[in-house]
C-alpha cells in the first residue's frame, strides 16, 4: 500500500500522535484526561480529519474482541465473589518454608492465575495481599512485587484469554484455544521458572535475612485475615456469628431486674411496719419477684398494704399459696432461648449451604467455559454465554455485578481500533514494514531475532495492543508466503514477544502500572516501586526470557 496524500498523512500522524501520548502518558499535564478519553479523541480526529470515513470507523471496531473482553470480565468478577483469589492468596502462604519459597510461589501462582483470569485482574487482587505477607514477615516488598508483575505478564502469554493482545491475536488469526495453548504453554513454563531463578539470584542477599529475631513461626494461611486478602474483591454478604444474647434481650432483662430491685427495696423498707402478712407470704412474694426477673414480663406483686388504700391492698393477699404459684407459672415465658438458638443455627447453616452451592456452580461454569474453549468453540460467544449463565444463576439484580465491568477499557478498545485503522490508511505502517520485512522473515534465526527486536521496541513505545494491531496481519502475510505452518508460528511469536516485552519497563504493561499503583496506595503497607528499580531487573529478565521462549515457540 502506497502512502496516502500529504494532508491525509500529516493529519493522520497528528491524530495518532495524540492517541499515543494519551495512551502512554495518561496524566500528561496539558491534557490529563486519561487513556479512554485519549483513544476517543484520536478516533474522533481521524474522522474529523477525513482520514477515515464514519462507516469505516464503525466497521473498524472488532465486536468479537469486545464481546470476549466483556465475557471474561464478568466471569472474573464472579470468581472474585466466589473467593477464588482468597484461596490463591492462602495458597501462597500455606506451609511456607521461608522467603525464597514464598517468592517462588508468587511466581507460579500469579503465572497460572493470569493465564486463566487475565494478568490485570490477578495483579489487582493479589498486590495488597503480597504486600501484607511481606511486611508481616519483615521481608523487602520489592522482590515479591516484581515477581507478581513479571510472572503475571509471562503467564498471561499462555492462553488467548490471558491478556488483551492475545485476544486480538486469537480472533484475527483464527487459532483455536488448544493450538494456542500447545504453542505457547511450554515456553510460559520455562519462562516463569527462568524469571523466578533470575529473581532469586538478583535478590538472594535480601531474601537470606531472617524474617525476625523471635524464633520465626512458620507462615500459615492465618498470616492475613480472610477479609483482608484484598480490598478489591467482591464477596457475598458476610453472616455474623449468632450471639446467644442480642442487645434487645439485654434491655428486656435489665429492665425487670431494676424494677424488681426497686420493689424489693420497698418491701424491705415496709417490712418493719408490717403487721398483717405472715412470714410464708413474704417468702412467696420474694420468690415471685425473682421469677419475674427471669421472664420478659414483670409480675408486680405487692407484699405490703398501702397506707392510703389499706383495705384494697390487703385483699391482694387473700389468695392461697397454691393460687399464687399458679399465677407465677402462667406468667413465666416458656424458655425461648434454646428454641431461638436452634432456629438461628439452622438458618445460618442453611445460608452457608446456599453459598457453598453457589460457589460450586461458579467454579463448574468457569470450568465448562474453559473446556468449551479447548474444544474449539467460538471464544467470544463461549465467554458471553458463561457470563450470562452466571448472571442468571445469581438470582439477584445484575446491576451490582455489571457495574464492576471495566467499560472504560471496552471504550478504550473501540477508540483504539478506529485510531489504528485510520493510521493504517495513511500508508506509513505498511511503508515502514516493507523496509524491515525482507530481513525479518521467520525462516532464519537472524530474521526471527530482528522481528523480536522490532516487536520488543514497538511494544514499549506504542504499547503491546496497538503493536499487535499494526504488525499482526503484516507479519502473518509475510510468514504465509513461506508456508501455512509458518503463518501460525508467526502469530504465536507475536503473542509471546509482545507479552513478555511488557516486563522491559514499568510503562510496558498495564499490569506493571496496576502493581505499582496498588502498592503505592495500599493502606498501612504502602510501597513505591520506582521506574528505575523495575528497569534494572526488567531489562536482563526480558531479554533472557524472550530468547529462551522464542526457541521453544519456533520449535513447535
UniProtKB/TrEMBL annotation:
<feature type="transmembrane region" description="Helical">
    <location>
        <begin position="102"/>
        <end position="131"/>
    </location>
</feature>
<feature type="domain" description="Citrate transporter-like">
    <location>
        <begin position="27"/>
        <end position="501"/>
    </location>
</feature>
<keyword id="KW-1133">Transmembrane helix</keyword>
<keyword id="KW-0813">Transport</keyword>
<feature type="transmembrane region" description="Helical">
    <location>
        <begin position="448"/>
        <end position="471"/>
    </location>
</feature>
<feature type="transmembrane region" description="Helical">
    <location>
        <begin position="181"/>
        <end position="204"/>
    </location>
</feature>
<feature type="transmembrane region" description="Helical">
    <location>
        <begin position="63"/>
        <end position="82"/>
    </location>
</feature>
<dbReference type="GO" id="GO:0005886">
    <property type="term" value="C:plasma membrane"/>
</dbReference>
<dbReference type="Pfam" id="PF03600">
    <property type="entry name" value="CitMHS"/>
</dbReference>
<keyword id="KW-0472">Membrane</keyword>
<dbReference type="GO" id="GO:0055085">
    <property type="term" value="P:transmembrane transport"/>
</dbReference>
<feature type="transmembrane region" description="Helical">
    <location>
        <begin position="491"/>
        <end position="515"/>
    </location>
</feature>
<keyword id="KW-1003">Cell membrane</keyword>
<dbReference type="InterPro" id="IPR004680">
    <property type="entry name" value="Cit_transptr-like_dom"/>
</dbReference>
<feature type="transmembrane region" description="Helical">
    <location>
        <begin position="9"/>
        <end position="27"/>
    </location>
</feature>
<dbReference type="GO" id="GO:0016020">
    <property type="term" value="C:membrane"/>
</dbReference>
<protein>
    <recommendedName>
        <fullName>Citrate transporter-like domain-containing protein</fullName>
    </recommendedName>
</protein>
<feature type="transmembrane region" description="Helical">
    <location>
        <begin position="405"/>
        <end position="423"/>
    </location>
</feature>
<keyword id="KW-0812">Transmembrane</keyword>
<feature type="transmembrane region" description="Helical">
    <location>
        <begin position="535"/>
        <end position="554"/>
    </location>
</feature>
<feature type="transmembrane region" description="Helical">
    <location>
        <begin position="361"/>
        <end position="393"/>
    </location>
</feature>
